[in-house]
Design a protein that fits this description.
Blueprint (H helix, E strand, L loop, with lengths): L12 E6 L7 E6 L4 E6 L3 H12 L4 H10 L6 H10 L11 H6 L5 H5 L1 E8 L4 H7 L3 H21 L7 H6 L6 H28 L7 E7 L3 E7 L8 H26 L8 H20 L7 H11 L4 H13 L8 H33 L2 H9 L2 H25 L2 H8 L1
Antiparallel strand pairs: 1-2, 2-3, 4-5, 5-6
Helix pairs in contact: 7-10, 9-10, 9-11, 10-11, 10-12, 13-14, 14-16
């Protein structure tokens, strides 16, 4: 690329990102087609868009710099052009390493960095259908969520039906083998697709369509599906928040409907009633778990949007603690510190539970008659296998977390 004539992507626009109480709103500047963005404050937005428009018309950074100097506007145009290049917003941007690519994708950066991709499915062909279905979906989903929840609460507090989530989970012991298999199959075939479809339909109402859905292993332990929605943060703030919350709301509705259908047999559930109660329990558990404020769950993005009004509050919180520990700042926001403590506890618990569950499966597998002879032949094989798997998981977690928190980069600079 000729360094004197850099060209920004043709579809670069600006959108309101967060409305702040102090009046200093923040904006998103970038390209939906490339799914690359910059966060710009309201005061700098006119200057940034002015430079981008001049670059798109073929002006050189030197000419723009001279023009701004005549207007007594002091800024480094060449540095801004390099910033655009690093974030993939030029027509011919230089090759980026993984960390640069993650940094330019605010919605997916931490998610990609701490996950291992298993497979992806393209959803580009669904844009037309989603646009048609999205016209009335928002009102339908919100109405169903409110109506079914009120009915369930009425049954709990005013009716004769009293139950807890733990009681619903225990109902699975009444399932026959075919219904138990159906219950497990309902998770990947019904619950997850409907959860992700709710996100997609809310976004499609405002012209944002999913690109692909990816199955990932978060910290190489927690399997989950991630829906890529290029342009999610270009949605109006309120609709953006509803789009993120739509998935958990779908789980709430599915749980409510299944529970209402099974209420007549709640006292002694059998057969299909036991299946419906178990189905309801799975959806309620998914709803509650998804609302916890930790990556990669929807609750993390709701917290970022509604509570902190930041794209990547997790990275900002860890960076703030790191600067404080390095004595580069005296001020450590209490909310950031609380978030780091909770996040550390969540990751530690996730690793502990995940590794313990994997080891439990390995022990159960070793007791099977088909492999018992192998384990008896060499009792150290199972122990070594468990150590290798556990070491890989912990090693991956330490490596990726040290990268995200800046520890690895600091060590490299020191050496």
């Amino acid at each position: 690329m000729n360094k004197s004539t850099p060209r920004p992507l043709a579809d670069i626009q600006s959108w309101l990102l967060f409305s702040l109480k102090n009046g200093h709103n923040s904006y998103l500047v970038g390209s939906i087609s490339a799914d690359r963005y910059l966060v710009i404050d309201e005061q700098r937005l006119p200057l940034v868009m002015n430079i981008i428009h001049q670059l798109q018309r073929g002006a050189t950074p030197e000419a723009i710099q001279e023009n701004l100097a005549q207007q007594r506007i002091h800024t480094d145009v060449q540095a801004f052009v390099e910033h655009l290049a690093r974030h993939g917003l030029l027509e011919e941007s230089p090759e980026k390493d993984a960390d640069d690519e993650e940094a330019s994708r605010p919605f997916y950066s931490q998610l990609q960095a701490l996950s291992w991709d298993i497979f992806s499915i393209s959803l580009d062909s669904l844009a037309g259908r989603l646009e048609k279905l999205s016209r009335y979906f928002r009102h339908l989903l919100l109405s169903l969520a409110l109506l079914t929840t009120l009915i369930i609460l009425g049954q709990m507090f005013l009716g004769d039906h009293h139950f807890t989530l733990a009681q619903l989970i225990r109902v699975r012991h009444h399932l026959s083998l075919p219904l138990l298999v159906m219950t497990y199959l309902s998770i990947p075939l019904l619950i997850i697709p409907l959860h992700e479809a709710a996100h997609a339909l809310f976004a499609a109402e405002k012209g944002v369509f999913p690109k692909q859905i990816t199955m990932r292993l978060y910290m190489m332990i927690l399997p989950f599906f991630s829906l890529q929605l290029p342009g999610l943060y270009t949605l109006p703030p309120r609709h953006r928040l509803l789009t993120i919350a739509a998935g958990p709301l779908m789980n709430l509705i599915l749980g409510n409907l299944a529970l209402l259908l099974s209420l007549p047999g709640l006292a002694a559930p059998t057969g299909w009633q036991a299946f419906l109660l178990t189905f309801a329990a799975i959806n309620y558990a998914t709803f509650l778990f998804n609302l916890t404020p930790f990556l990669p769950l929807d609750g993390y993005y709701i917290l970022s949007q509604w509570g902190f009004k930041e794209l990547d509050v997790r990275s900002n919180a860890w960076a703030s603690v790191r600067r404080w520990l390095q004595k580069r700042t005296r001020r450590l926001p209490p909310l950031y510190l609380a978030l780091v403590i909770m996040d550390s506890a969540f990751l530690t618990t996730l690793l502990y539970v995940g590794i313990r569950q994997i080891n439990s499966y390995l022990l159960h597998w070793s007791n099977a008659s088909s492999v018992r002879a192998l384990s008896n032949l060499n009792p150290h094989i199972l122990t070594l296998t468990m150590l290798v798997i556990d070491s890989v998981i912990v090693g991956f977690a330490i490596y990726r977390l040290s990268t995200l928190m800046g520890i690895r980069q600091a060590i490299q600079k020191a050496s």
